[in-house]
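Recall from the previous lesson that a structure prediction takes nothing but the amino acid sequence as input. Here we apply that procedure to GntR family transcriptional regulator from Paralimibaculum aggregatum. The sequence below is the only information supplied.
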Amino acid sequence: MNEQSETAAPISTAEQAYAEIQRLIVIGTLPAYELLSENDLARRIGCGRTPVREALQRLKFEGFVDILPRRGIMVTPVDITRQLELLETRRPLEELMVSLAAVRADERQRAEMLRLADELERAIAARDRGRYLEINREIHRIEAEAARNRYLTQHIHLLHGLSRRFWYSFITETESFSEAAVHHARTLRAIAAGEPETARQECVALLDLLEQVSQKAIRERLRGG
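The prediction returns the following tokens.
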């Protein structure tokens, strides 16, 4: 067990670097078009250049950054029009994920989901966007974990990461922020209760809301709003 943990440590460090850099991009601390260097990022997040380099390769693949030869790393802008394509891909996978999770989650995971549902509601009541983002990541993680399908987990994590930046930029500024939290909390509680169809229905309602907000953002962008 210890040997396995020691072997996994470099991967864990790269994963932490990836999560932190992605978080800084999502919340706008690293804004679009900003030029960065590996050294800058390593100092900022407190780790070595090697995990930062690995994290940046992953973020480049996912579209968060561009790596410009002899210039540095540039944060890419949010592409609103891609959101509808992301949602179209995400919808069947997310419905499958929550349905499987309701059947396959263990007792620890069900208890954790109930705790996250309560914390989410407290974050919404306090209008704490930062805490909401943290809880949202944990919700996605535990739902995928409980579904117990590694291929589904790999694909849904990528889609969630790409969607999160749009969510933080556009949805948390509107009343859709709290409405989405209601569907998240209901989905969690349905999974915890072992009710796959209820979980799926709440998941569909959430994705419908995300699609409406995406379409509205696109219309406003086209009008120059």
